[in-house]
Amino acid sequence: MKFLSLFKRVRPAPKSAARNRRTAPRVGRAARAPEVEAAEALSSAATAWMKNLPPRLRPLELCRTYPRVANRIALCWDELPLIEAVFNELLVDRRGGRIGFPVPVAAELLRLHAWCERRIAAASASA
Questions:
Q1: Is the pTM higher than 0.70?
Q2: What DSSP state is assigned to residue 78?
Q3: CA-to-CA distance for 71 and 67, rounded, in angstroms?
Q4: Among 10, 65, 72, 112, which residue's beta carbon has the most beta carbons within 10 A?
């Protein structure tokens, strides 16, 4: 009978229920991390970082759809070991079963990562 339970109809929640979910107390991991409105917007530092990149490297889709990730990359950009760790965390699924980024965003992340790899290689060659 478990197989048939997959075909149960699920009614969408009324709009008032969706509103209540937003104000309901958070549980688990969400309770530990406070919601920050600023994390949902692109920071001025990230905007400046993006404008300093060559035009072909500018992650416009990333900044539009995942501003929190773009803010994090911008903050770590000048610290080569740190930015390498950030890219590894973003691009490698260590937990298993993660969906990943949409193709345009993933392509931008991969281009930025390749640019960082060249920066790291140049820095180690000059050291």
A1: no
A2: T
A3: 6
A4: 112
